[in-house]
Amino acid sequence: MAFPDFAVEERLVSDAEREAFGIFGKLAGSSSQSDFIAHSLAFADILGSPGEFSSFVHGEAADRLVAIDHLLKVFRENTELLVHKTWVEKSDEKRKEKLIEEVSSFEREFREGDLRPAFRRFVQLCHSIAHLLFGAQSRADDFLLYTFRIDPKLGLFFWFVGELGDQLHRDSGDDELLKAEVLVGMYVLSCF
Protein backbone atom coordinates (compact mmCIF):
# COMPACT_ATOMS: atom_id res chain seq x y z
CA MET A 1 0.00 0.00 0.00
CA ALA A 2 1.51 3.34 -0.98
CA PHE A 3 1.73 6.39 1.23
CA PRO A 4 -1.80 7.83 1.21
CA ASP A 5 -1.66 11.05 -0.79
CA PHE A 6 -4.67 12.45 1.05
CA ALA A 7 -2.70 12.42 4.31
CA VAL A 8 -0.21 14.89 2.85
CA GLU A 9 -2.64 16.90 0.77
CA GLU A 10 -4.96 17.49 3.69
CA ARG A 11 -2.11 17.84 6.20
CA LEU A 12 -3.54 15.03 8.29
CA VAL A 13 -0.15 13.86 9.54
CA SER A 14 2.70 15.65 11.24
CA ASP A 15 6.19 15.64 9.78
CA ALA A 16 7.20 12.96 12.31
CA GLU A 17 4.22 10.79 11.37
CA ARG A 18 5.06 11.28 7.70
CA GLU A 19 8.55 9.94 8.44
CA ALA A 20 6.95 6.73 9.71
CA PHE A 21 6.03 5.74 6.15
CA GLY A 22 9.67 5.80 5.08
CA ILE A 23 10.84 4.12 8.26
CA PHE A 24 8.41 1.27 7.74
CA GLY A 25 9.79 0.80 4.24
CA LYS A 26 13.26 0.51 5.74
CA LEU A 27 11.99 -1.93 8.37
CA ALA A 28 10.30 -4.15 5.79
CA GLY A 29 13.44 -4.05 3.64
CA SER A 30 15.84 -4.81 6.49
CA SER A 31 18.04 -7.85 6.34
CA SER A 32 19.83 -7.83 9.68
CA GLN A 33 18.64 -8.04 13.25
CA SER A 34 20.29 -4.71 14.10
CA ASP A 35 18.34 -3.05 11.26
CA PHE A 36 15.07 -4.69 12.41
CA ILE A 37 15.69 -3.33 15.88
CA ALA A 38 16.66 0.18 14.79
CA HIS A 39 13.77 0.63 12.37
CA SER A 40 11.13 -0.97 14.58
CA LEU A 41 12.27 1.28 17.44
CA ALA A 42 12.03 4.40 15.26
CA PHE A 43 8.61 3.39 13.93
CA ALA A 44 7.25 2.57 17.40
CA ASP A 45 8.59 5.84 18.82
CA ILE A 46 6.48 7.76 16.30
CA LEU A 47 3.29 5.79 16.99
CA GLY A 48 3.73 5.47 20.76
CA SER A 49 5.73 7.25 23.43
CA PRO A 50 9.38 7.74 22.52
CA GLY A 51 11.66 5.33 24.34
CA GLU A 52 9.00 2.94 25.64
CA PHE A 53 9.44 0.34 22.91
CA SER A 54 13.15 0.04 23.64
CA SER A 55 12.64 -2.48 26.46
CA PHE A 56 11.33 -5.02 23.93
CA VAL A 57 14.40 -4.91 21.69
CA HIS A 58 17.35 -3.68 23.82
CA GLY A 59 19.05 -4.97 26.92
CA GLU A 60 19.64 -8.39 28.38
CA ALA A 61 17.70 -11.29 26.89
CA ALA A 62 16.01 -12.07 30.22
CA ASP A 63 14.88 -8.46 30.62
CA ARG A 64 13.51 -8.40 27.06
CA LEU A 65 11.58 -11.63 27.71
CA VAL A 66 10.02 -10.12 30.85
CA ALA A 67 9.08 -6.96 28.93
CA ILE A 68 7.60 -8.96 26.03
CA ASP A 69 5.71 -11.20 28.46
CA HIS A 70 4.22 -8.07 30.03
CA LEU A 71 3.38 -6.66 26.60
CA LEU A 72 1.56 -9.86 25.65
CA LYS A 73 -0.43 -9.67 28.88
CA VAL A 74 -1.33 -6.00 28.38
CA PHE A 75 -2.21 -6.62 24.74
CA ARG A 76 -4.50 -9.52 25.67
CA GLU A 77 -6.16 -7.61 28.53
CA ASN A 78 -6.67 -4.44 26.48
CA THR A 79 -8.04 -6.38 23.52
CA GLU A 80 -10.43 -8.35 25.74
CA LEU A 81 -11.55 -5.15 27.48
CA LEU A 82 -12.10 -3.48 24.12
CA VAL A 83 -14.07 -6.45 22.83
CA HIS A 84 -16.26 -6.64 25.92
CA LYS A 85 -16.94 -2.89 25.91
CA THR A 86 -17.72 -2.69 22.19
CA TRP A 87 -21.38 -2.48 21.37
CA VAL A 88 -22.23 -4.53 18.31
CA GLU A 89 -25.29 -5.81 16.54
CA LYS A 90 -26.57 -9.13 17.83
CA SER A 91 -25.29 -10.79 14.66
CA ASP A 92 -21.71 -9.78 15.61
CA GLU A 93 -21.77 -11.26 19.14
CA LYS A 94 -20.22 -14.49 17.87
CA ARG A 95 -17.49 -12.43 16.21
CA LYS A 96 -16.64 -10.98 19.62
CA GLU A 97 -16.40 -14.44 21.17
CA LYS A 98 -14.24 -15.69 18.32
CA LEU A 99 -11.95 -12.67 18.65
CA ILE A 100 -11.29 -13.50 22.31
CA GLU A 101 -10.39 -17.06 21.29
CA GLU A 102 -8.13 -15.74 18.52
CA VAL A 103 -6.25 -13.50 20.97
CA SER A 104 -5.50 -16.55 23.12
CA SER A 105 -4.38 -18.54 20.08
CA PHE A 106 -2.19 -15.67 18.93
CA GLU A 107 -0.58 -15.36 22.35
CA ARG A 108 0.12 -19.10 22.49
CA GLU A 109 1.65 -19.12 18.99
CA PHE A 110 3.82 -16.10 19.70
CA ARG A 111 5.05 -17.51 23.01
CA GLU A 112 5.88 -20.84 21.35
CA GLY A 113 7.87 -19.09 18.62
CA ASP A 114 5.46 -19.99 15.82
CA LEU A 115 5.99 -16.58 14.27
CA ARG A 116 4.41 -17.10 10.85
CA PRO A 117 1.07 -18.35 12.23
CA ALA A 118 1.23 -15.67 14.97
CA PHE A 119 1.90 -12.97 12.34
CA ARG A 120 -1.01 -14.16 10.20
CA ARG A 121 -3.31 -14.29 13.22
CA PHE A 122 -2.19 -10.82 14.38
CA VAL A 123 -3.14 -9.30 11.02
CA GLN A 124 -6.53 -11.03 11.22
CA LEU A 125 -7.01 -9.80 14.79
CA CYS A 126 -6.36 -6.23 13.71
CA HIS A 127 -8.93 -6.51 10.93
CA SER A 128 -11.45 -7.96 13.38
CA ILE A 129 -10.77 -5.16 15.85
CA ALA A 130 -11.31 -2.61 13.08
CA HIS A 131 -14.62 -4.26 12.22
CA LEU A 132 -15.76 -4.22 15.85
CA LEU A 133 -14.82 -0.56 16.21
CA PHE A 134 -16.00 0.75 12.86
CA GLY A 135 -18.38 -1.85 11.45
CA ALA A 136 -18.80 -1.92 7.68
CA GLN A 137 -16.73 1.29 7.41
CA SER A 138 -13.64 -0.86 8.11
CA ARG A 139 -14.06 -2.42 4.66
CA ALA A 140 -14.82 0.79 2.81
CA ASP A 141 -12.40 2.17 0.25
CA ASP A 142 -12.00 5.36 2.28
CA PHE A 143 -11.35 3.60 5.61
CA LEU A 144 -7.81 4.95 5.90
CA LEU A 145 -8.94 8.50 5.22
CA TYR A 146 -11.65 8.00 7.83
CA THR A 147 -9.17 6.79 10.45
CA PHE A 148 -6.57 9.45 9.61
CA ARG A 149 -9.23 12.10 10.20
CA ILE A 150 -10.17 10.57 13.56
CA ASP A 151 -6.54 10.38 14.68
CA PRO A 152 -3.47 10.34 12.44
CA LYS A 153 -1.79 7.71 14.63
CA LEU A 154 -4.84 5.49 14.33
CA GLY A 155 -4.77 5.96 10.56
CA LEU A 156 -1.07 5.25 10.50
CA PHE A 157 -1.64 2.08 12.54
CA PHE A 158 -4.28 0.79 10.12
CA TRP A 159 -2.02 1.72 7.19
CA PHE A 160 0.66 -0.40 8.93
CA VAL A 161 -1.84 -3.28 9.27
CA GLY A 162 -2.57 -3.00 5.54
CA GLU A 163 1.14 -3.20 4.81
CA LEU A 164 1.41 -6.28 7.01
CA GLY A 165 -1.52 -7.80 5.13
CA ASP A 166 0.23 -7.16 1.82
CA GLN A 167 3.38 -8.73 3.22
CA LEU A 168 1.32 -11.71 4.38
CA HIS A 169 -0.05 -12.22 0.88
CA ARG A 170 3.48 -12.13 -0.54
CA ASP A 171 4.52 -14.58 2.22
CA SER A 172 7.64 -12.49 2.72
CA GLY A 173 9.79 -11.62 5.66
CA ASP A 174 12.05 -13.68 7.82
CA ASP A 175 11.10 -14.58 11.37
CA GLU A 176 13.02 -11.68 12.95
CA LEU A 177 11.17 -9.18 10.75
CA LEU A 178 7.81 -10.77 11.55
CA LYS A 179 8.60 -10.70 15.26
CA ALA A 180 9.66 -7.04 15.12
CA GLU A 181 6.50 -6.07 13.23
CA VAL A 182 4.21 -7.98 15.59
CA LEU A 183 5.92 -6.44 18.62
CA VAL A 184 5.40 -2.98 17.15
CA GLY A 185 1.75 -3.77 16.39
CA MET A 186 1.06 -5.10 19.88
CA TYR A 187 2.82 -2.14 21.40
CA VAL A 188 0.87 0.39 19.37
CA LEU A 189 -2.48 -1.27 20.13
CA SER A 190 -1.56 -1.33 23.79
CA CYS A 191 -0.90 2.44 23.68
CA PHE A 192 -4.36 3.39 22.39
Q: Could you describe the 3D structure shown?
A:
- This protein is mostly helical and 192 residues long.
- It has one domain.
- Helix content is 74%, strand content 0%.
- It contains nine helices and no strands.
- Helix 6 packs across helix 8 (152-170), helix 6 (115-134) packs parallel to helix 9 and helix 7 runs antiparallel to helix 8 (152-170).
- The two termini are 23 Å apart.
- 32% of the residues are buried.
Q: How are the elements arranged and paired?
A:
Layout: H1 5-9, H2 15-28, H3 33-47, H4 61-85, H5 93-111, H6 115-134, H7 143-150, H8 152-170, H9 175-191
Helix pairs in contact: 2-3, 2-8, 3-9, 4-5, 4-9, 5-6, 6-8, 6-9, 7-8, 8-9
